[in-house]
Automatic annotation (TrEMBL):
Residues 1-22, 381-406 are annotated as: Disordered. GO terms for molecular function: manganese ion binding; metalloaminopeptidase activity. Pfam families: Peptidase_M17. This is Cytosol aminopeptidase domain-containing protein.
Length: 406
């Protein structure tokens, strides 16, 4: 079933979100609905379905607005205000660890990346803990509000657009808001790893060694491989402090993602074959398409070998599965023998279409975790635990694809 046939279409303004606030003439914020419903019976939308789609669309717009906003406004402090605003609307006060407190508590990845910026780095958490929950899920988002590359500085053609490096955290904020509004039955934590990768007197240098929240030491050989550092702190916090059973991290992590899976499919890597297949199905049902990366730590993790620390932060051979290796770096801090489910989602290319943000990731998360929702439509499109977790779903997906190709 193609959820995207009923959800507002993804793409630049005006279809997916309002026209940019800095443009002189604002265009009308259209909602594009298909006249063809999810099921086989044509008919008007009922109130509950319309509410679900509206909340999903609002989440997409929130994510896109954050990603489109320049760092002169969307700095780490402003992003925290966005998190507080969502928390206030949902009745959830955020937990925030900020600035020097990160260093004192051992978050060497987030602190090391963001310490040179005017606005300090932060770890923020929104926690939804309903009674009767049977498992704990954590979504961990990379929120680099601007990425200069640090001292391994980007060039003049590769730095523009780096306001989008907070796309993972933005998508998780939008999805969390929609998921909680629709009724989420399990514990759900949204973890935001916020920093600006800036250049300054206190900036991390190549050759520096940071101790991350996992306790592992990392030799920095590329300050422009910063996202994996903040996410490693985030996923370990989700495991140790939040005792999560399922951890999903989402990030605009690597430029190589676009080479691996293209502009329209995010790249997915996980320690679970079932969840890998579920991500692909959720991509088809939501319109936020997904495709697996190679998961092979026994062959790829040696790329991070260091003579002076537990690992380096960037690969030795940039032609050896870069996107997979970047994900493995994050997974290594959880431990490759960690018993829970870990999913890594790289959305570097589909986070934008041309010059505008798409809000990619919100619909994917709502579909992927729809089995934990009280909403019947999200239950229906979920690839796990429902009717779509069968071979019949494959048949419907193939039929949907055939209709698109005709």
């Amino acid at each position: 079933m193609c959820l995207r046939r009923r959800v507002p279409s993804r793409g630049p303004s005006p279809s997916s979100h309002a026209a940019h606030q800095h443009r002189g003439v604002l265009k009308r914020n259209w909602l594009l609905w298909s006249s063809s419903p999810l099921g086989n019976n044509n008919g008007p939308l009922d109130a509950s379905t319309l509410e679900c789609l509206t909340n999903a669309a609002d989440g997409v717009r929130l994510a896109a607005r954050i990603v489109d906003t320049p760092c002169s406004e969307m700095n780490t402090d402003h992003f925290l205000e966005e998190i507080r605003s969502v928390g206030q609307e949902l009745g959830i006060p955020p937990t925030i660890i900020r600035g020097e407190d990160l260093k004192q508590k051992g978050f060497g990845g987030i602190y090391g990346v963001g310490k040179a910026a005017e606005h300090p780095p932060a770890l923020a958490v929104l926690s939804h803990t309903p009674s009767g929950a049977t498992q704990t899920i954590a979504w961990v988002g990379k929120g680099i509000v601007y990425d200069t590359g640090g001292l391994s500085i980007k060039g003049k053609t590769t730095m523009p657009g780096m306001k989008r490096d907070c796309g993972g955290a933005a998508a998780i904020l939008g999805a969390f808001k929609a998921a909680v509004k629709q009724g989420f039955k399990d514990n759900l934590h949204a973890v935001f790893c916020l920093a600006e990768n800036a250049v300054g007197p206190t900036a991390t240098r190549p050759d520096d060694i940071h101790t991350l929240y996992s306790g592992k030491t990392v030799e920095i050989n590329n300050t422009d491989a910063e996202g994996r550092l903040v996410l490693s702190d985030g996923v370990v916090y989700a495991s140790k402090d939040l005792t999560a059973d399922i951890i999903l991290d989402m990030a605009t992590l690597t430029g190589a993602q676009g080479i691996s899976t293209g502009k329209y499919h995010c790249a997915v890597m996980t320690n679970s074959e079932r969840w890998e297949a579920a991500c692909v199905r959720a991509g088809r049902s939501s319109g936020d398409l997904a495709h697996p990366l190679v998961y092979c730590p026994e062959l790829h993790f040696s790329e991070f070998t260091s003579a002076v620390a537990d690992m380096k932060n960037s690969v030795a051979d940039r032609e050896n599965a870069q996107s997979s290796c970047a994900g493995l770096f994050i997974g290594s801090h959880l431990g490759f023998d960690w018993p829970g489910v870990w999913v890594h989602v790289d959305i570097a290319s589909p986070v934008h279409a041309g010059e505008r943000a798409t809000g990619f990731g919100v619909a994917l998360l709502l579909s992927l975790f729809g089995q934990a929702s009280e909403d019947p439509m999200l239950n229906m499109v979920s690839p796990l635990g429902g009717a779509s977790d069968t071979s019949s779903a494959d048949s419907m997906e193939r039929d949907c694809k055939r209709r698109r190709l005709v």
